[in-house]
Amino acid sequence: MTTWIVGAVVVVLVLVAVTLVGAYNRLVRLDQKAQEAWSGITVQLERRYDLIPNLVNTVKGYATHEREVLERVTAARANALDARDQGVEHAAKAEHQFQTALKSLFAVSESYPQLRANESFRKLHDELVDTEDRISASRRFYNGVVRDFNTRRTTFPTNVFANAWRFGQNREFFDVAESRATQISEPRAVEF
Questions:
Q1: Percent of the chain with pLDDT over 70
Q2: By residue range, what is the domain housing residue 66?
Q3: SS3 state at 177
Q4: Is residue 7 exposed (0-12), middle (13-18) or buried (19+ Cβ within 10 Å)?
Q5: Looking at the domain assignment, is residue 163 inside a domain?
Q6: Other CB atoms within 10 Å distance of the CB of residue 140
Q7: What is the pTM assigned to this prediction?
Q8: pLDDT (tens digit, 9 = 90+) per residue, 66-93?
Q9: DSSP code of residue 163
Q10: Among 1-10, 110-119, 180-189, which stretch is predicted with the lowest mean pLDDT?
Q11: What count of other Cβ atoms lies within 10 Å of the Cβ of residue 99?
Q12: Cα(63)–Cα(116) distance, integer angstroms
């Protein structure tokens, strides 16, 4: 009888150990996946930030008296570059400001038909639209991973041990006011 009790206790302990190891490993995998997803976002943001100086220079050649808008875009770009390393919340706020400044730049471009007809401007615009789509896809992927991580971290029995395993806080979602590529105005054909 005692061997049966000892056997049952051993089985229970093994099951508890397997459950704990499995829960820990799932949290580690999700945490790593979230870090990888955030890296994907920063790569796409960097790609977009690299396009902006060329875009500003192209617009500057046509819209010289729109200096304030160009300076705002340049300052918002610099702020967004700095904010990437300060966490998701700071990056999201800086992205919102950057997107607002970028929209104003494209609004200005509407007043300059020669600019809209410029091959360089059109190419930069197309690259920016493509990059915006990639950022949106990366953001959706990241937020999905964060949702899975936060759900796993807060559900029983993982939530009991998550703090002890240093998974004590939920990850932040990367929520930015949507700047879908469709919101960036398309250059219109210029009539000659």
A1: 92
A2: 27-182
A3: coil
A4: exposed
A5: yes
A6: 12
A7: 0.79
A8: 888 889 999 999 999 999 888 899 999 9
A9: T
A10: 180-189
A11: 21
A12: 11
